[in-house]
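In the current project phase, the collection of sequences with tokenised folds has grown. One resulting record follows, to show the layout:
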Amino acid sequence: MKIRVGLDRVSWLAWPIVLVVIQQLFFPAPAGALLAGLILGLITGLVSLGMYLVFRANRVLNFTAGELGLLPAVLAVMLIIESGLSWYLSFGIGLVAAAVLGIAVEFLIIRRFFDAPRLVVTVATIGVAQLIGVGALFLPGWWGARVQSQRIEAPFDIDFEIGSRVFNANHVIALILAPLAMIAVGLLLRTTRIGIAIRAAAELPSRAAMLGIPVKGLQSIVWSVATVLGFIALFLRAGIYGLPVGGALGLLLLLRSLAALTLGRLVHLPTIIAASLALGILQEAVVWNSGSIEAEAKMGAITGVVIVVALLLRRTRGMRAEMDTSSWQNAGDTRPIAAVYRQLPVVRIGRIVAIVAIATAFAVFPSLFGTTVVVRMGLIFLFAITFMSLGVLTGWAGQLSLGQMAFAGVGAATSAWLTQRWHWDITLATLAAGTIGALASLVVGVPALRLRGAYLAVTTLAFAITVSGYFLNPRFFDWLPTGRVERNPIFGVIDWSSSRAIYYISLIAMLLAFGAVRGIRNSRTGRVLIALRDNEAAVESYGVSPVRAKLTAFAISGFLAAFAGSLVVHHQQALVVDDAQFNLLIFSGAVIGGLGSPLGAFLGSLYFNGTFYWLQGSWRLLASGIGLLGILLVAPGGLTSLWYDLRDLTLRWFGARRGIVEGDDADDLIDTTDTDEVATGEPGRDENEIEAVTPA
């Protein structure tokens, strides 16, 4: 019994020890590199601590932890470099700015989602990250600065060497200031009335509110503290590694913090801090053995594997208590017109005219615009397929995925290899790529059997970083196509090398994908996935296997994404693997368009690519950040939801002019017949049909 108690007391060190063992066995490094890794781990620990505080207060993973600290850090750096202020004064101004920024973000944005599902708040933090990141990019313009990266000088001089590694005062400041900040937060939580109230509100917010504790006000304090921690981390980073002023903050810092949180099960702070230190040491050891360029890819892959393994090995008991797993119930699903309105002549004629007009516009589009616009429109069609794959997985099944472009990349690499090396026809290569994408998606879907909500988001993001940074990196795998990808004739006779031809091929591919998705949505499989999103327990009570349903959603989603990737690589005639940051932008575009319907996928692709094509520089990120937050606040169902609302208002107006009064047969414009279909597989009947067969 005593031995078991002793093991329980040190079990929190298990994963940090595993990381250190991996470093010692595979990436041995001298003492100087290990000390540099310890400093990097302290910086990571500050960000991890901020994410931990936000999770305990809001039950949400804060994807904006780094960017919130970046904005005041850039301010402080510019005050030192451009305005000539002292280090101490600039640091103090940065602290105040960080505290104010944290309160402002919580009060103006996060608090608007106080009663929303936690997954919605998680997605909102992605929008906040994009918005704040753009602010950090524009901030140096106030001084007319154009620097891309800049280190700041320490306020005093110290230089020493450990082996071949040179350290200075900035390293010493990090070794002192980072632990002091962590200790200060610990004392705040443990010894002050505010800290006790924060911990009480985190455990039972409803009961805390009943006892008179200002839960919302405490959350503002938590966000303020988290932003201050992020600022300190990035300000220290500016002195040691340089700050990406005018550039983007990479994903490795976020990934290390997410890994530390995962290893600490999001709630055990000592494990989170120890894992942060171990991950920092591991990264510097990888850099020492591989060089900085290859180290980033290898570290991303290693961290991603660690996250997935840790989540798979953990006990499922208690996971629901750690994370609110509210479903994604705001998806913009297709809303059919009620039968009573479909009989109106103006509606029948209007639908025919709209279909003919849209078909004509798509058909004559290449004749009206130049080559550049035509090529871009074809890419919009293909991205719409990728967005629809997210609609199946997230909009229908409620599985939050932040790694969809990884499946598209797998499909692109597979298809390009088959058509260029083995000279397969594009049709066979695309089907094969879709199959490989479905299998890869199933591999990622296995954790979904045990995980949900933001846990799954971490897993898919880690998968995306691993695939894009390592497995699809020609530095490590020489089979990947690196030259021009030729468009060989389809079936040996159909030439699709011109911009007009690739436009029509992309349009046909999108229509085929949308037709297939619509057929699945109207089948029993689609109805089961929707019901699974809304109430998994109820679906299981009908005898439906949630495991099989989830894996089906992953397979369909992976096939569609890889299908799109296969055509994109031939459309672009080159295998270009975007970084993992692109996955967050793709998800934002899908949410803006509306998850769950082909119309939403097309509108999201049009918005996403349109801002990329016709907005310059950082304004693209600004459009996606503001667009995402605006849609989540105004219409969580996306642009397609706004379209349906406008259509329904118009139908009510026409119906009222013809004597159809609200509350009669047209009380509900939406057919809601899916509930009974889950168990029986038989289509339900709407209210009008029931009235028609019921005797008077």
Remarks:
- Confidence is low (pLDDT under 50) at residues 1-8, 317-328, 663-696.
